[in-house]
Design goal:
The chain has 13 helices and 14 strands. A five-stranded antiparallel β-sheet has the order 4-3-14-13-12, sandwiched between helices. α6 links the parallel β6 and β7. The chain is of the alpha+beta class. Helix content is 33%, strand content 15%.
Length: 537
């Protein structure tokens, strides 16, 4: 044996020579056990028969034949075809492998009224709720109300009324509709341009990032386009006017002045906020349209355009709730969304368009409105619904338009009073049954355009106005999706859950006259969690 090989073997055996007798015995026992184990495993494999693609052939054939333990084990008619695995969870409403033993139905079982009552009625009796307490649970697949407690009684809904606002806007305008802010050259007035409000409350004067359509419409981009268009025309000095006549009637909501809403006008930037926030309460400017025009003038000056004087209004925004503009119809396709922009109103006066920017799709606006309970978007969408359906773009016109739209969808609007689109008006009255049915309709297979109403609902414990509710131990955390509503003495919650059996349900719980808002919210959260955790049969 060569010296090098002898040296290597000697090195390998050195630890063995240095080991104690007990250590050597332990090593021999381990090695022997390993050899015996390998021999047994090899014997079992040989005895089991041939294998094919990682599965024992005989086992594959038996499975394909449908044989069970105790059968004769003969292969079925197609031994080469192995069965696929069953899904862990069946799709909602899909047939089960066997009929339900209680009902005989081959579908996800529907909760029963008595079962839901057993789970919900004790919670509805909680002293934290006000004198008026109402609730409804609806099965999405059938549209049937499964549980009701004063479900038809009108109550102040607070911000849950935004569900109705979203449904009406989407059904009237379509999810792809966009709101356009324009700059036009004033006809017969050389050197004068007009900033025309398109009713987009999300228009921003702040810097934006990302491709167009991924962020709100930008006043800076509008200024860029306008400056280029003016240079191309050889114009370097202009007079700036602004037009808010897309809307009619008063701009002041009954709750104003209030940090939750700016005056409702067709032209504003960043919702008239004085700070850098983009959601929630904030101090607002008194005249959002004038402030937006001043911001636009500053942006033009930054781009080398001389703007003389202060911007001034043109067109009228406070002429009362007159009739809708002639025709009150949508100019199909003019906006690139479904249905385009309604025609009529001062904002459609003749004048060559120099520049324009468009909002995100209506679907995104509805989602933002619901997730963050955005009151400014809600009031704007109510007016756009009015214009799309031939009503004045005002508080009164919006009320009539939304109510008519819901009625057209076959929803139970009897007794409902929709005074505004945001829910800030305490004159609003909506039933729990209507809210639950609104959500069921949005989830229905025949209304895909309404789906943003569901996708915009906050997720319990994670997003929007439910981010700080439903603690880590709560059953509803991550399962409940719901719109919240809060005013002084008013607490409401309406949304969707998939129950313990996999059934998609909608619910609405409202209380008026509560004195402890935090305690009332906790009870509402427990009610929604009870629906999610309940097979309720």
């Amino acid at each position: 044996m060569p010296d090098e090989a002898r040296w290597r073997l000697s090195g390998w055996f050195d630890p063995w020579r240095a080991a104690t007798v007990e250590q050597r015995r332990t090593g021999l026992l381990a090695a022997g056990s390993a050899v015996v184990g390998l021999a047994v495993a090899a014997t079992c494999v040989v005895a089991a028969g041939p294998w094919d693609s990682g599965q024992r052939t005989a086992e594959r054939q038996r499975a394909a034949s449908g044989a069970h333990p105790g059968d004769d084990g003969r292969p079925g008619p197609d031994p080469a075809r192995a069965p696929g695995a069953s899904p862990v969870l069946a799709p909602l409403g899909a047939p089960l492998a066997s009929p339900n033993p209680d009902t005989g139905e081959r579908s996800v079982p529907v909760p029963t009224g008595p079962g839901l009552a057993d789970a919900l009625e004790p919670l509805l009796r909680d002293d934290a709720l006000g004198p008026l307490r109402a609730g409804a649970v609806v099965d999405v697949a059938t549209g049937r109300q499964l549980f009701g407690a004063k479900a038809g009684t009108g109550a102040i809904p607070a911000s849950t009324i935004k569900i109705a606002t979203g449904v009406a806007a989407l059904s009237a305008l379509g999810p792809g509709h966009r709101l356009t802010t324009r700059v036009t050259a004033a006809p017969n007035a050389p050197g004068r341009i007009v900033l025309v409000g398109g009713g987009d409350p999300t228009l921003t004067a702040r810097a934006t990032r990302g491709p167009d359509g991924s962020h709100p419409a930008s006043l800076r981009q509008l200024a860029d386009q306008t400056a280029r268009a003016l240079r191309a025309r050889g114009e370097h000095t202009v007079r700036l006017d602004y037009d808010t006549s897309l809307y009619t009637g008063t701009s002041r909501h009954p709750i104003l002045p209030n940090e939750n809403l700016a005056p409702v006008t067709a032209l504003m930037v960043d919702e008239g906020r004085r700070d850098d926030s983009d959601r929630g309460p904030a101090d607002r400017v008194k005249d959002p349209a004038a402030e937006a025009a001043r911001a636009f003038a500053r942006l033009l000056r930054d781009r080398g355009v001389k703007v003389t004087g202060d911007p001034r209004p043109t067109g009228a925004s406070d002429k009362g709730d007159g009739k809708a503009a002639k025709g009150g119809k949508r100019d199909k396709g003019s906006e690139g969304g479904e249905g385009g922009t309604p025609r009529g109103g001062g904002a459609d006066r003749p004048g060559r368009t120099l520049a324009s920017v468009r909002s995100q799709p209506l679907s995104s606006l509805v989602e933002r409105m619901l997730t963050y309970s955005d009151n400014d978007i809600a009031e704007a969408l109510t007016r756009h619904t009015a214009r799309a359906t031939g009503h004045p773009a005002s508080f009164a016109g919006g009320r009539a338009a939304v109510t008519a739209r819901l009625k057209r969808l076959g929803l139970p609007v009897a007794g409902a009073h929709l005074a505004d689109g945001s829910g800030l008006d305490r004159a609003d009255k909506v039933s729990a049954g209507l809210l639950a049915q609104l959500l069921a309709r949005a989830a229905g297979p025949d209304q895909p355009a309404l789906r943003p109403v569901l996708t915009g609902l906050p997720v319990a414990g994670f997003t929007g106005t439910l981010r700080d509710r439903y603690g880590e131990e709560s059953v509803g955390r991550g399962v409940v999706r719901a719109k919240t509503g809060t005013l002084f003495g008013v607490n409401t919650l309406a949304g969707t859950v998939v129950d313990a059996d996999g059934r998609l349900l909608t619910f609405a719980f409202l209380t008026n006259g509560s004195t402890d808002p935090a305690a009332a919210q906790r009870v509402l959260d427990r009610l929604a969690s009870a629906v999610a955790n309940c097979g309720c049969r």
